[in-house]
Design a protein that fits this description.
heterotrimer, A alpha+beta (767), B alpha+beta (248), C mainly alpha (220), B: 248 residues, alpha+beta, Ubiquitin-like (UB roll), Fumarate Reductase Iron-sulfur Protein, Chain B, domain 2, five-stranded mixed sheet, two-stranded antiparallel sheet, 9 helices, 7 strands, elongated, C: 220 residues, mainly alpha, 3 helical TM bundles of succinate and fumarate reductases, 0% strand, globular
């Protein structure tokens, strides 16, 4: 026997209460087991009710409302209670024996740091070319990580099925990366090395990443550049014909390779062309405009996925020997982010729901240089490359009155005297100045704006000023050309030319969006969500806790700790796809050489497909009144306001509650128009937002759980007197890996302790 | 702002489409064109209609997804931008705006403004790559210096985002600018020269098989190209093609 | 190599080559005609040579006719293919925002030129053939100038000729530079070629107009 009931949470004998006492309402699940024992799950709803308003005969009433109409807020309260019971119900329904994860084994090989990867490569099992022909691999996502993995796996001889929701694999959001890609080539001879890249990444990540993974990343970084040049990626070059480099935030060397402001595009097209070569050979089967809806696990191993064809709406079953997720990050949880409109967490979340752990979900990178929000209708934020901070100086007015005048338009920023400007990054961090890491720069901007020094109408913007760079470059040019260096107009126009050559496309983009000329008046910028360091937990082999299910690129958590350095995302994506996964996956697939083709008509596939169809039916037949975007925007606001650049316990707790309420409202009043068997973007969106609704809660829970400030995660309770992040290495030197629970608040935390054997844990200083 | 929209609606690739009129009010000049479309779609959903389907993703002008033919031009009246970078301040209150899909036989319509551009992928698959293995056992990146001028030209060609505006604007629906950009990128680099002959022959063959029209050098493509890819690359493609034919 | 002219680029090149060939012919034609303005004798001499030299008559003339036919047939084939490449047309298409009117309407200028050629053949080539090969009249090296000015007595014919020359100009302005682009000339010459193209496309037809009008007005 199973039942769900409502009850009041009495803490002392009933007689001790008067009718005006308020008690918390609980939902209670009761199950009588075969062995005569009972199982009871009781959960608070957070709703309070006076004894006089409680209807103890609620189960007899038709609407089963336990709170009587004498309570002024009875409708809302009953609604919350009912939704809690639905949550609990689905929890019970999904309750089945999941293999218990006892300890997290990161499988980092033994031996000295610099030999770990080569030793590991020498020791993993291999699969012979003849056997590779009989093994299928599914890759979800075709960005830098997915595309490069597809190409390399297919080249090795595996049969690859590649899936992307875009109309072509070339459009994955890696394409939008502007600045560059790091590699420890030391072409500039400025003392760079694998160790330094490793060290900078660990330090930049605020000591919350896994040493062995980061070292491996630094180690393979230089092969990436070789590989890409061989593929015809047109990196920027010097007049001598050799590759050019520039510098990025958080480091003191120039190790960033770039292709103007379109490095991501050029690298992605490189991976795309490598994929094309394999498509032509018949080794990759491309499924564009397909979205992964669920993963299928057979005998404890990942054996396939369920997809939705976004053109016809058909639900399809695809089987393989292993599944690789390269589905990117979940920054769109915030609604407004620099991610593409389609970027979503669904693939990763579905895998999480089937047993993969989700690591550090709250580690989000907020990029300091984005174009500020201008209105409610806004759908998307635009990033201005970090490289701008090489030449731009960030400031706000020193005086509060000036800031006010600038906001209402009565004072032009260019009229403000030098002495009245506060170049706060240069003031606070003299050593790194405007090139401090992203988390530090973002927080500093927020701090100034919160203090009332913001410079646009909404008060949420700071200036990024190129005038001194323009004058500096102009004078240099004038000197070289033998012109008058005192002629300010000439100097400025020469300087503008130099800036145009360096950042022309970015300036043009800014002018298009904001309708102001950034050569003449300083740019306005504000931080925006950009990248998520968190993701599926993976071991050294990049395998999640589901055997045969791998996660690479932004979809995993592994290399960036609590903050990612600029130009490292491209590096990680390609490292995982070209060099790491193709080595480590062999070790797992060596067991599958005799398995033969995986059938896609097993009961596991049928059940998974049916569940997906039910979910779609539920969303599309919902008789609500509000569009998906309405909910997505609301969710984004909750997350941004409570779990954004700085977080505190109270806000996080509030966020968890608000998300729970929003989620139940979502299922109640969502409206999806159109047909499920056709091209239907609002349905696709609804399916994605449904997963964000769940992730959001885990996100807040994770932030709440981590009682320290580190990298992009800043808890107001944990800061130094100067307002710098205060890490707690004694208690939090671990990765938070969450195990799914249908009641997300109950998600179980697993800790992977991080051992630092090769670097000393220091508090990060950029002063 | 109040606007009168004339939008091409077509249920699927089989059905016949038509222009449908919409009136939309309270549009802010600071909105992007796609945000205006979002507002329209929200309203259509409110009225239980089927929202207008259109391709879009990055909304910062680089992914090449968005593909509208606005008032007689791909990506609208502004040059060197994609639809997602077009802002409503470009229009005036009371304007009538025609919104159509990119039209070409090789780009069949999937729904409304969404077209199938996989023909471009197939052209790339026929030879738009350098056949080296991705295992990392290649030369050091600085072994072969590349003249800066050629590297820059290769980069300019490589900026193509594959949006298809060249095809859409061309009166003949020719894909020459797209193909020439890819062929030129590789043929300008020493790494790509090795396979130049086969590449150009195969890619042009595939382009013809897809049913694109012939280039008549009107130059519409390079004017409308959001990345400003020059017509010079088409001349280069012609040259490469003749050269390849003489070799084979 | 054998498939080159089956491909789109191959056809463009064929179009360009035949176009360049016709341009060369046109230049030659113009040079001979302009002499009629300065000297009756030179004109007669050149015309007689062209009309009676076996190389010109039996080799170059058939090649020219083949070239003209090829250029037209290919032009129509390409136009047909290009229309097929966009089965549903745009409700709103602003070609003027991105290209020249002449470049988009080569088929129109081409058809006008074709009709003109019919008239032109009827006026000169047919009587010439009739004179030489049907009636087999005796050679008269001095008849050409007379025949020429006789034709330009009619104001209708002169205006039709002039109108056609305007279209010829429109065709040439795009045609010449387009041919070189199709033949893949290096980009660094592009702007010079464009200028030559304008000069040629305006100059030659203007010259032809001048000749026609000159002979028309000397009647008064």
């Amino acid at each position: 026997m199973k039942k769900i009931t409502y009850s009041l949470n009495y803490r002392k004998p009933k007689e001790d209460y008067t009718e005006n006492c308020e008690l918390t309402v609980c939902v209670r699940y009761y199950q009588k087991l075969d062995n005569g024992k009972h199982k009871v799950v009781k959960k608070s709803t957070g709703v309070k009710c006076k004894l006089k308003d409680w209807d103890s005969d609620w189960h007899k009433a038709e609407n089963r409302h336990p709170i009587k109409s004498t309570d002024s807020d009875y409708l809302e309260k009953n609604r919350i209670i009912r939704n809690k019971s639905i949550d609990l119900h689905s929890f019970i329904k999904d309750l089945k024996p999941v293999k218990k994860i006892s300890t997290l084994d990161s499988k980092v090989p033994k031996g000295p740091l610099h030999l770990k990867w080569s030793n590991h490569k020498n020791n993993v099992r291999l699969v012979s070319p003849a056997n590779k022909r009989n093994i299928d691999i599914i890759v979800v996502g075709t960005g830098l990580a997915g595309g490069s993995a597809c190409a390399t796996l297919a080249e090795q001889g595996y049969n690859v099925k590649a899936f992307c929701f875009q109309d072509s694999s070339r459009r994955a959001h890696s394409i939008a990366a502007q600045g560059g890609i790091n590699a420890a080539k030391n072409y500039q001879g400025d003392g760079d090395s694998v160790y330094r890249l490793f060290y900078d990444t660990i330090k930049g990540g605020d000591y919350r990443s896994r040493e062995a993974n980061v070292y491996r990343l630094a180690e393979v970084s230089s092969s990436i550049i070789d590989q890409c040049v061989a593929q015809g990626v047109p990196f920027a070059r010097e007049y001598g014909g050799l590759l050019d480099n520039r510098s990025f935030g958080g480091v003191l060397v120039s190790r960033t390779f770039y292709a103007k402001g379109q490095t991501g595009q050029q690298l992605l097209l490189g991976a795309y062309s490598a994929m094309n070569r394999q498509v032509a050979r018949g080794k990759i089967e491309m499924f564009t405009r397909h979205e992964m809806m669920d993963i299928v696990i057979v005998d404890g191993k990942a054996r396939g996925i369920i997809t939705r064809n976004l053109i016809t709406g058909e639900i399809e079953k695809h089987s393989a020997h292993a599944v690789v997720l390269a589905s990117g990050g979940y920054g769109n949880l915030f609604y407004l982010s620099t991610n593409a409109m389609g970027s979503n967490v669904s693939a990763a979340w579905k895998v999480h729901k089937k047993g993969a752990l989700f690591a550090n979900p709250s580690f989000t990178q907020i990029h300091p240089t984005c174009i500020p929000v201008s209105g409610d209708y806004q759908s998307k934020l635009t990033l201005m490359s970090e490289s701008l901070r090489n030449d731009g100086r960030i400031w706000v007015p020193k005086k509060f009155e000036d800031a006010e005048k600038i906001r209402d338009g009565s004072l032009k920023p260019t009229d403000l005297k030098e002495g009245d400007r506060d170049y706060y990054l240069e003031r606070r961090y003299p050593a790194f100045g405007n090139l401090v890491p992203r988390d530090v720069a973002s927080r500093a901007a927020k701090e100034r704006c919160d203090a009332g020094f913001g410079v646009n109408k909404t008060g949420e913007a700071v200036f990024l000023d190129f005038s001194s760079a323009i004058v500096r470059y102009g004078k240099e040019k004038a000197l070289v050309k033998g012109l008058d260096t005192e002629d300010l107009d000439l100097v400025r126009s020469l300087g503008e030319g130099v800036i145009r050559a360096k950042y022309g496309n970015l300036f043009q983009m800014y002018e298009k969006i904001v309708d102001e000329n950034p050569y003449k008046t300083p740019m306005m910028i504000y931080p925006a969500v950009h990248y998520t360091m968190g993701g599926l937990w993976v071991d050294y082999n990049l395998m999640t806790t589901i055997p045969g299910c791998y996660a690479i690129g932004e979809a995993n958590f592994s290399d960036h700790g609590a903050n990612r350095l600029g130009a490292s995302a491209l590096m990680q994506g390609l490292a995982d796809g070209y060099f790491v996964l193709p080595n480590t996956i062999n070790d797992y697939l060596a067991d599958d050489i005799k398995t033969g083709p995986i059938p896609n008509d097993s009961p596991e596939f049928h059940t998974a497909k049916k569940k997906v169809e039910e979910k779609i039916e539920k969303l599309i037949s919902n008789k609500g009144s509000k569009s998906v975007d309405y909910f997505h925007k609301k969710l984004g606001k909750i997350i941004w306001n409570n779990c954004g650049m700085s977080r505190n316990e109270e806000d996080l707790k509030k966020a968890i509650k608000d998300i729970q309420i929003l989620r139940s409202e979502f299922y109640e009043s969502l409206k999806v128009t159109g047909d499920k068997y056709s091209f239907n973007e609002s349905l696709a969106k609804a399916l994605r937002v449904a997963d964000f609704m769940e992730l959001g809660e885990l996100f807040a829970l994770d932030a709440l759980n981590r009682n320290e400030s580190c990298g992009g995660h800043f808890r107001e309770e944990y800061q130094t007197k100067e307002g710098e992040a205060l890490r707690n290495d004694d208690d939090f030197t671990f990765v938070s890996a969450w195990e799914y629970n249908p009641i997300i608040e109950f998600s179980k935390l697993h800790k992977e302790h991080l051992d630092f054997e090769n670097v000393e844990l220091k508090s990060r200083s950029y002063k | 702002m109040k606007l009168f929209l004339k939008i091409w609606r077509q249920k699927n690739s089989q059905s016949k489409g038509r222009i449908v009129d919409y009136e939309i009010d309270e549009i802010s000049p600071d909105m992007s064109f796609l945000e205006m479309m979002d507002v329209l779609n929200e309203r259509i959903i409110e009225e239980d209609g089927d929202p207008v389907a259109f391709d879009h993703d990055c909304r910062e002008g680089i992914c090449g997804s968005c593909s509208m033919f606005i008032n007689g031009e791909p990506h609208g009246p502004d040059k060197l931008i994609t639809t997602c970078q077009l802002h409503m301040r470009r229009f005036r209150d009371g304007d009538t705006i025609y919104i159509e899909p990119f039209r070409a036989r090789a780009f069949p319509i999937i729904k409304d403004l969404v077209v199938d551009r996989t023909a471009f992928d197939r052209i790339q698959q026929s030879g738009g790559f350098i056949s080296i293995n991705t295992s990392g056992n290649t030369l050091d990146a600085n072994t072969i210096p590349i003249e800066k001028e050629n590297a820059d030209k290769a980069f300019d060609a490589a900026t193509c985002i594959g949006c298809g505006a060249c095809v859409a604007s061309c009166k003949n629906s020719s894909a020459m600018l797209f193909v020439s950009a890819k062929v030129s990128q590789f043929s300008l680099l020493p790494q790509g020269k090795v396979e130049a002959t086969d590449r150009v022959l195969n890619m042009v063959n595939q382009m013809d098989d897809e049913g694109f029209g012939n280039c008549t050098n009107t130059g519409a493509c390079h004017v409308e190209c959001p990345k400003g890819i020059s017509l010079d690359y088409i001349a280069k493609l012609n040259r490469e093609y003749v050269k390849a034919n003489l070799k084979k | 190599m054998k498939n080159i002219f089956k491909s789109s680029i191959g056809r463009k090149i064929a179009m360009a080559l035949s176009g360049v060939f016709l341009i060369v012919f046109l230049t030659q034609h113009f040079i001979i005609n302009i002499t009629s303005v300065f000297s009756e004798d030179i004109f007669n001499m050149l015309s007689h040579f062209m009309g009676n030299n076996p190389l010109v008559q039996f080799i170059l003339q058939p090649i020219l006719i083949a070239g003209v036919l090829f250029h037209f047939v290919m032009g129509f084939v390409l136009e047909w293919q290009n229309r097929k490449a966009r089965p549903v047309t745009y409700a709103m298409y602003k070609g003027s925002r991105n290209s020249m009117f002449v470049s988009r309407n080569m088929i129109i200028s081409g058809i006008v030129i074709l009709s003109f050629l019919v008239l032109h053949f009827y006026d000169f080539w047919v009587p010439e053939m009739d004179y030489k090969y049907i009636q087999v009249k005796p050679e008269d090296p001095n008849r050409y100038y007379e025949e020429l000015i006789h034709k330009f007595e009619s104001p209708i014919r002169v205006s039709l000729y002039c109108l056609s020359f305007i279209f010829l100009g429109l065709h040439l302005v795009h045609g010449l530079s387009s041919s070189t682009q199709s033949l893949g000339t290096n980009n660094k010459y592009a702007s010079t070629i464009q200028k030559i193209s304008y000069a040629f496309g305006i100059g030659i037809p203007l010259g032809f107009c001048f000749i026609a009008l000159y002979h028309f007005f000397i009647h008064f």
